[in-house]
Amino acid sequence: MSTFYVPAVNLIGKGVVKEVGPYVKELGYSKALLVTDKFIEGSDILPQILGPLDAEGIQYVVFSDVEPNPTCKNVMDGVAALKEHNCDFIISVGGGSPQDAASCISVIATNGGKPQDYEGLHKSAKKGLPVVAINTTAGTSAEITINYVITDEERKVKMVMVDKNSLALISVNDPELMVSKPAALTAATGMDALTHAVEALVTPGAYGVTKKLSIGAIELIKEYLPRAVANGHDIEAREGMVNAIFLGGMSFNNAGLGYVHSMAHQLGAVYNLPHGVCCAMLLPVVERENAKRVPEAFRNVAKALGLQIEGKTDEECAAYAISEIEKLSETVGIPKKLTELGIEEKDFDFDYLSKNALIDACAPGNPFMPTLEETIALYKELF
């Protein structure tokens, strides 16, 4: 049996943020903690969201102390703000970081404790506080998934939480909120989305529905990501990417991810690198190893990336898929090596990162379980 999780109401398309007010009012709550980050708070994005809320008389308090790669401190500060202002629901505004922080605040608000208590699969007992998730980047799909990631700054570990009780009530994906995003962020988040779709397609957890969703996401990303990076105001491309993350998010939310994410989480935790960049660099490295074990899983990836697969061997399909992924990364300007990001091999803690990758919650979704030595070898390919 397969259980399929997705928010109850999903607003998608140009201008939908203008319609959000009545949906929020209809929920009937009294005051929201609006969780966001400093960038969005100081940008032209926030007024586009506050306007429709103000028009319906919705009360809210803005909490913007969320860092990229949100920390336990960010979450606990958010919980404190929520209690101080007597908020009874949450509106999250932003990309993956505010969305993930909001998910964790929501769970702790009703279950108590601290973020570390919820690392792993479905650890909370009660449904989290209601969340209206307004997304501003085409990448993480955090607004529609039951996955969230919080950095334990003491242990230097990204904790992966998969929890059905953290699912938002309403998601909002309006491409008009994304046009001002810089090219590098568009590229990184878009490659994160590609990683979701590819990992969800090659995982043993994939099934009929999720496979079709992944294929659709990959097709859209190949077509629209280069355009969105080249011209942020190309609204058709932005809308194509919104559709891609909705499809891909539904897929990995239900099929699972794999070792690209396990390894990427460690780079983010220790070196505070952008998650999408880590995923993009690792994707061809890890999939090359996966293709040696399950080449047949790459037929669909190759097809989605434009190959006529009739008469082609599984191995040919896998080689084509990995080559196309590398080309797309290069087209959108993703670095190839960690040295380009200021990290030297002599300073890299291979052992620590590899050991943590092995116990990351995404690791069991990979087609095979690498050893410690194999993981170290994979990281070495980034130098």
Give the SSE map.
Elements: E1 9-12, H1 20-27, E2 31-35, H2 38-41, H3 45-55, E3 59-63, H4 72-84, E4 89-94, H5 96-111, E5 120-121, E6 131-135, E7 147-152, E8 157-162, E9 170-173, H6 183-202, H7 208-230, H8 235-255, H9 259-271, H10 275-293, H11 298-304, H12 314-331, H13 350-358, H14 372-380
Helix pairs in contact: 1-3, 4-5, 6-7, 6-8, 6-10, 7-8, 7-11, 9-10, 9-13, 10-12, 11-12, 13-14
Identify the CATH homologous superfamily of the largest domain: Dehydroquinate synthase-like - alpha domain
C-alpha Rg, in Å?
20 Å
The arrangement of helices and strands along the chain is EHEHHEHEHEEEEEHHHHHHHHH
Beta percentage is 5-15%
State the distance separating the first and last CA atoms: 42 Å
Principal-axis shape equals globular
**CATH fold title of the largest domain:** Dehydroquinate synthase-like, alpha domain
Proportion of residues in helical segments: 40-55%
